[in-house]
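Weekly structure sync, notes
Attendees: PL (lead), two postdocs, one rotation student
Agenda item 3: pending single-chain targets
PL asked that the sequence for the first pending target be pasted directly into the notes so everyone works from the same version. It is reproduced below exactly as submitted, 225 residues in total.
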Amino acid sequence: MEGCGEEEQVKLLGAAKSPFTARVRMALALKGIHYEFIEEDIHNKSELLLKSNPVHKKIPVLIHSGKYVCESMIIVQYIEEAWGNKAPNLMPKDPYDRAIARFWVAFIEDKFAQSVLGVFNGQGEQQQKAAEESVANFLLLEEALSGKAYFGGDEIGLVDISLGGLLVFIKMLEKVTNLVLIDAERMPVLSAWVDRFSEADGVKDVLPDRAKIFEFISGWRAKLT
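Predicted structure, written out during the meeting:
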């Protein structure tokens, strides 16, 4: 395979149940990049992880030819730039479209994620308010997706991976809390995208295990009561 020698030096430190690790695994799978996956115990971090991410000491970390790249969406953008000759393109070629994609990724990482974490950590009135904020954020994403199969257009792109990595966590959070965050009636386009994305090649095989995420969220919520 062309570029095989380079790809053999790719390693990913992560955890199979981590939504952030899933983002990177999606990008690597979509690009057809072979890599060694090293499962990390986040409660007993390896020397390699501490060495490769000394600032945050967190997964995921991509190791490419001995160089370390940290933070899930930074890694995804690095993959696109390092293997830009490999289809599909995870980022638009046009500078404006690329800026718009980065805008929505920043939205998901900041405002959107904070509202979902509010549902995860909150109780009573606080949780209800976070759920309402989450729904409002999903409606913004519904509008941004309108008329397209994926946020990236006809193919999965940067924004799809950013949101898609969180999908299992969000769906299991809905199940544990009995809250509806992605309303099929109010968000038909986004709901169809969830099904389409979840079954896509390069995605379905690396999504976190639903049962394990359900167990994790249930255990966390139990500690809050």
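Discussion points:
- The chain has a mean pLDDT of 95.
- Residues 95-121 form the longest helix (27 residues).
Action: rotation student to compare against the earlier draft before next sync.
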